[in-house]
Design a protein that fits this description.
With about 170 residues, the chain is α+β, with helices and mostly antiparallel strands. It has 5 helices and 8 strands, in the order αββββαβββαβαα.
């Protein structure tokens, strides 16, 4: 009887932890967390794997991630940069998205720093999860740092995207 009780207790604990983790991820992907009511924008251009242009002309740099560079200064296009740009285009080009600010408003180049949401899915997260970008944490913008780290670990372990195509 004791073994049976222990097995039931263990199964119940595992179910509870799993339920809690799923709830935590769903709460972390809630676009209303920091988004203002007037935060919907049409994407008119994708610059690269982590930068987009809004209909109003503003450039937006995705917070917390870094995609391979298309044309870095004094260097050639990085491995998987074209694929990252194409995936970003597939996800957001011509679509209406929502923006969520963390702490900082703009980067050193004047681009808005934002989490980008489409249909309650965070694009920043999706790009990392599928191996089109990797995490790049710059405090104080760290709201989703742990979520991005989990996605990157999974992408890397499963050899997705740049993790399978590019040397270290």
């Amino acid at each position: 009887m004791g073994k049976y009780f222990a097995i039931v207790l263990l199964a119940l604990s595992a179910f509870t932890v799993n339920h809690w983790l799923v709830q935590e991820i769903q709460e972390n992907q809630n676009p209303q967390k920091g988004a203002s009511p007037q935060s919907e924008f049409l994407i008119t251009q994708v610059i690269d794997g982590d930068t987009i242009k809004l209909e109003n002309g503003d450039l937006v740099r995705y917070i917390g991630i870094n995609a391979p560079e298309l044309n870095p200064p004094n260097a050639s296009t990085e491995c998987f940069a074209l694929e990252a740009k194409k995936e970003n285009e597939r996800l957001v080009l011509g679509k209406i998205i929502k923006l969520e600010k963390d702490v900082s408003d703009k980067d050193q180049y004047g681009r808005l720093l934002r989490y980008v949401w489409l249909d309650n899915q965070m694009i920043n997260y999706q790009l990392v999860e599928k191996g089109f970008a990797q995490i790049a944490t710059y405090p104080p913008n760290v709201a989703y740092q742990n979520l991005f780290l989990e996605a990157q670990t999974s992408a890397r372990e499963n050899n997705l995207g740049l993790w399978s195509k590019c040397p270290n």
